[in-house]
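Standup notes
- DV: blocked on the single-chain target, sequence here:
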Amino acid sequence: MAGTDPLTPGSRVDELVAALRRTSGTVAAAESLTAGLFTATVAGVPGASAVLRGGLVAYATDLKHVLAGVDDEILQRDGPVASSTAHALAVGAATRCGADWGVGLTGVAGPDPQDGHPVGTVFVAVAGPGGVTVDRHALAGNRWEIRTATVSAAVSRLLVRVQSDTTG
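- DV (later): unblocked, structure below
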């Protein structure tokens, strides 16, 4: 996934916005390591205002609870970089922003490991019809490359979910 720049015109983010528009679906995100990059990427597509509800930047651990509603128990038990945290971020984004789909992004962009997780450990969660999926990625690269690869992974995962929701 590293090297796929979601910010390039004609990328999968255009397909995502089109798919959400076709289904009248909406999306919101709660972002940690990407610090709003996913939301900004979606907003960069013409027509995004019809599908993008908003985003929460919860970079600091306490804001994952305050803004996105991640249970303190999850943060205490599993930490800010965990599948359960990504899951709760995705649900919190959808719930707090009133969206059909929620994306939760957390991980380690570097340069140092965090809480025993190596640089490049990323969790991408998508909440929506049919439940929540969480994918763990081991990404390579510098901070920017890890962050953009995370956005690419989130765009791709959400696109697959939106498309399967309309065909399944």
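- Follow-up: Residues 12-167 form a domain with the Maf protein fold (CATH 3.90.950.20).
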